[in-house]
Every structure is written in structure tokens, then in C-alpha cells.
Amino acid sequence: MSTDLRKRKITYTIILTSDSPAANYRRMHIKTGALAVVSFVMFVAVICYAVYTTITMGGYIERNARQLEQLVQMKTEKETLEAEKESLAGKVASLEETLSRKEEQEQELVAAHEENYIPKGFPMSGAAQIKEEDTASEDAQNDDGEDDEDEEEENTLKVEPKEEWKELIFVAAQGTKVVATAPGTVKEVREAEGEVSYVIIDHGNGYVTTYRNLGSPIVEEGSQVVKGVALFLVGEDNTETGYSIRKDDSYVDPLEMIEIKG
Q1: What residue ranges do the domains of the chain occupy?
Q2: Helix or strand or coil: residue 149?
Q3: Helices of type H across 117-166
Q4: What residues contact 14, with CB distance under 8 A and at least 6 apart?
Q5: Beta bridge partners of 178
Q6: What kind and span of H or E run contains 208?
Q7: What's the pLDDT at 151?
Q8: Are 199 and 232 contacting, i.e. CB atoms less than 8 angstroms apart?
Q9: Would you state the pLDDT for residue 20?
Q10: Helix ranges (DSSP H) in the chain
Q11: What pTM does this model have?
């Protein structure tokens, strides 16, 4: 018996139905080859999608890894900056404290400097008495106790106190020196025949002192002087010295300023 072997084509039928009783149904016949093509296309599409998804996810993961690395780096930098900030804050506080101490020291030095320039010293280098206003000068007497009318006074010029200056008259022995009562600048020097000589010293901060004497000044105008420098030398004919202090154009009592030690 001969068998007619023929290749049969396999077809697939897809039936589409509806839940509605009145609806018709449809049949679709799909051949094996078409189904294979469709399956292949779908397979390729799935593969492409999988590859695309893998690539996309790979890039996303890589981006996330880079971002995470950047975040870690930024966090590290932030911690470093915060530590540097704290260190700088400590240094700033230390510098401010040092600056504050220096300012206090400078203020103390300025105060000490100003205090040193206040005329508180004694205007004579040695012992001296303050001449009272009501003290009358006595005439010289001879050995018999009688007035010597024939002797004439060689020097009738005297240092009379200026009440408006609150001036004090100091009487000192020969060899004593009239001295500056504080450092300063010699503002004016005057010596004229028949007049009382004087030296004016500007000590700064509004303080000015005036020294009047019948002797000759031994300092020059414009020179810088220190406390205790000699202005006049006291001799036989110039034992009296007038001393006054002016503060901001107002005269003050020297006894309120002079510091007497010992």
C-alpha cells in the first residue's frame, strides 16, 4: 500500500467571542509561519526591552553611585569645613581676647602717661616755704639792733603773688633750683630788665604751669623738659619763686595738685 506522504501545513485558529448572546464570534486563522514570525518579533522586542532596561538601569545605578559618592564627599567636606570653622572661631575668640587685653594695656599706658604729665611735683629741688600774703618783709638790722638807714636796697623788684592766678610764692635758700613739676614743652621764656622773668611749660591735656623768678631762665623756648629739670638757679637776690597752674584756661590751687612726699 502506497502512502502519499505530503507535508501538511499546520494552521491555528483563534476564535474571538463576546459575553453578549447576540454578538457574533469571529475566527482568525493564523498560519504557523506567521505565528513564528510574530513570536520572533515579540521575542526580539522583549530582548531589546530587556537590553534597554539593563542599559538604562545600569546608567541609573551608575548615576546613583556617582551621586552617592558625591554626597559622601560633600558630607566629608562639610565636616571638614565645620571643624575648620570651629577652629577658626576659637582662633578668632583668642585673637579678640588678646586684642582686648592689648587695648586695656594701651589704655592703662595712656592713662599712666597722662597721669605722669599732670603737674603734681614740687616746684623746688629742696626745702622751701610758702610765703604768706600778710607776711611783711622786715628791714635788715645792724649788729646793734638799730636800722641801717644809710644802706640802700640794691634790688627793689619783688615777685608779688597774682591772686587771680592763685599763685603761690615759694621762698628757698641759695643753691636751690626751681624745677619743672611734670614733663612738657617750654611754651614761653621771658627775661627782661626791670621785670620778673618767667618760664611757661605746656604739659598737655590742658595743663600749663608758670614759674616766675628774678633770676635768669636756664631753659630755652621750645625745648622738651622732664620732671625735675632746672628752670632757675636760686641765688641771694632771687630766693622767691611764683608758681601757678592752669587747667583748660582756668587756674587751680597748686596746693590741691602738689604731692608732698616724706
Answers
A1: 10-90, 128-133+159-256
A2: coil
A3: none
A4: 27, 28, 29, 30
A5: 124, 232
A6: strand 207-213
A7: 45
A8: yes
A9: 64
A10: 32-116
A11: 0.58
CATH homologous superfamily, domain 128-133+159-256: Glucose Permease (Domain IIA) (2.70.70.10)
Higher pLDDT among residues 245 and 141, named by residue: 245
Strand, helix or coil for residue 237 = coil
- Kindly provide the b/e burial profile for residues 241-261, where b requires at least 16 CB atoms within 10 angstroms of the residue's own CB: bbbbbbeeeebbebeebbeee
CA-CA distances (angstroms) from residue 5 to 2, 8, 12? 9, 9, 21
- According to DSSP, the residues that pair with 260 across neighbouring strands are none
Residue 176 clears pLDDT 80, i.e. is over it: yes
* Residues in contact with 245: Cβ distance below 8 Å, sequence separation at least 6, in sequence order: 119, 166, 207, 208, 209, 251, 252, 253, 254, 257
171 grid coordinates:
621762698
Cell of 99: 586684642
CA distance 252 to 212: 17
Q: Is the pLDDT of residue 73 over 50?
A: yes
Amino acid at position 192, single letter: A
CB 208 within 8 A of CB 202: yes
Mean pLDDT of the chain: 83
Q: pLDDT tens digits for 130-150?
A: 998 654 444 444 444 444 444
